[in-house]
Amino acid sequence: MTDGSRATGRGVLSVGGRLEYAYRIAYELVREPIPDGLFVLHDCDNPSCVNPFHLFLGTQRENMLDMEAKGRRARCGAAGSRNPAARLTLRRVRAIRALADQLSYGQLARRFGVSKSQISRIVNWESWKIA
Length: 131
What we know:
By secondary structure, this protein is an alpha+beta fold. The protein is built from seven helices and four strands.
């Protein structure tokens, strides 16, 4: 596994020197080749699942509709601390803005555990606009 696979919950394998998602390999080994432009979607909604009978093919649009039907779309668009992936709270965002004239973006990024580009977006009110 790579660091990216741990972050997404998807297993990754090296095939011919290229990294491939394990669920895509499982689908192709048991079902059929995946045509260009199609995605492998999960019936079970478990990104680490490699059971080829829980997997089906679909377009990007079908993938988005499937996500919405399973109730995951609302979480993805949540702003600020309502987003379950948010690393910051409203209080920490306000602290970043208060310290922006005293510390560099790099120092702020290390202190708050986010990237320098995220610090820039916060300080310039491109993200966390509700703060």
